[in-house]
Amino acid sequence: MTRTEYRWLLPSAMADPELPGDRRGRARRTVRDWAVDLTAFLCAVAVGMVTVATIEADPTTPDGVLLADIVVGALACCALWVRRRWPFGVAVGLVLVSAIEPVAAGAMLVALFGVAVHRPFRPVAAVGALALVLTPVQPYLRPDPGTSFVEATVIGALLPLLVISWGMAVRSRRQLVVTLRERAQRAETEAGLRAEQAQRLAREAIAREMHDVLAHRLTLLSVHAGALEFRPDAPTAEVARAAGVIRDSAHEALQDLREIIGVLRSPGESDGDRPQPTLATLDSLIDESRLAGMKVTLVNRVDEPGTAPAATGRTVYRIAQEGLTNARKHAPGTEVTVTVTGAPGEGLTVEVRNPAPTEPFEQVPGSGQGLIGLTERATLAGGSLDHGPEPDGGFRVRASLPWPA
């Protein structure tokens, strides 16, 4: 919201901070301010001229009094030009003057309206009470021949009350608009923060998915490429088999990468969604690992894997995939056992266990982020995961996930 918009809504003393180049700390008038002040001045002058014409029509009015009324009325109207600087003081002064000078009544009403718009309730109530107390003074000192004292007093009391009520209504509306604008801005800010948080969570999920998927494929590439490097005299059939595994793993890694990158694309840019892994596709993961030369035993005690929830089955698949990847990197040549048990209402449990390696091997570097990602994945799925070394030197990863009845 710009400064000019706030000036339309807030009192000038509250909404106009000190501007650069204004040594006295006063806000410069805008074009709208000049238009409002000129309109208020002309309205006060019009009321004063009508009052002067009424006084002049009374033959009993001395010329000196008429001249004094004109001068005082003109000064009262001119005082409105400084009401933005001293709204309360100008209003009090005009209330006192209008108590004995009817020509200043128009300027007094304009000043009361300005105080009601730009000041809180207490000063408005004080100046309003002063105006009501002094209302009977003018009809008593300068009675109107065509109006009784009671009528003049009632009219003189109603006009300030109406003007003050109108000004307070304008102030309330402006404050309401400001509050609504602030709430809208706060809502936009909160929506932006929620969007940023959602993007951060989405990036974390994509990074976790990318690690779980690509680490499995790239480990195959590393292991078999290392075997070809250190065994250049291997039989032709074994070299061909290792090259085939490398080729297939590279192809699958590219496909998985396209799938993950597809999440970041716009809806119209997708090349087509590949089916997500589930508990029913766990057998294909085991077959792929066996084809790569691993010794894997699958113990699946789930009667109907296809009935498991898709999200839970995908989590089981990723945990088994990461467990096989870690075993291939840190315990090559050992027999890995993957055990899956569970039923609806009892939950799902997946365990990946491997013994300690018996032969020396080249250590494949790892960052440990895979197990951290699996723990987060299991927690997000409503379950838990624990991992650690076994007494015989092996390693175990075990996760428990919910499966509603």
UniProtKB/TrEMBL annotation:
Q: Which GO terms describe its molecular function?
A: kinase activity
Query: Which residues span the membrane?
Result: 34-53, 65-82, 94-117, 123-141, 148-169
Q: What is its EC number?
A: 2.7.13.3
* Every Signal transduction histidine kinase subgroup 3 dimerisation and phosphoacceptor domain range: 203-268
EC class of the enzyme, as a word: transferase
Coiled-coil positions are none
Q: Which Pfam families match?
A: HATPase_c (PF02518), HisKA_3 (PF07730)
Which reaction(s) does the protein catalyse, per the Swiss-Prot or TrEMBL entry? ATP + protein L-histidine = ADP + protein N-phospho-L-histidine
> Region labeled Disordered — which residues?
382-405
Keywords attached to this Swiss-Prot or TrEMBL record, sorted alphabetically, are:
ATP-binding, Kinase, Membrane, Nucleotide-binding, Phosphoprotein, Transferase, Transmembrane, Transmembrane helix, Two-component regulatory system
CDD domains named in the record: HATPase_UhpB-NarQ-NarX-like (cd16917)
Every Histidine kinase/HSP90-like ATPase domain range? 314-403
Q: What InterPro entries is this protein classified in? A: HATPase_C_sf (IPR036890), HATPase_dom (IPR003594), Sensor_HK_TwoCompSys (IPR050482), Sig_transdc_His_kin_sub3_dim/P (IPR011712)
Read off the PANTHER family from this record: NITRATE/NITRITE SENSOR PROTEIN NARX-RELATED (PTHR24421), NITRATE_NITRITE SENSOR PROTEIN NARQ (PTHR24421:SF10)
Under which name does UniProt file this protein? histidine kinase
Q: What is the species of this protein?
A: Streptomyces sanglieri
Highest classification ranks of the organism:
Bacteria, Bacillati, Actinomycetota, Actinomycetes, Kitasatosporales
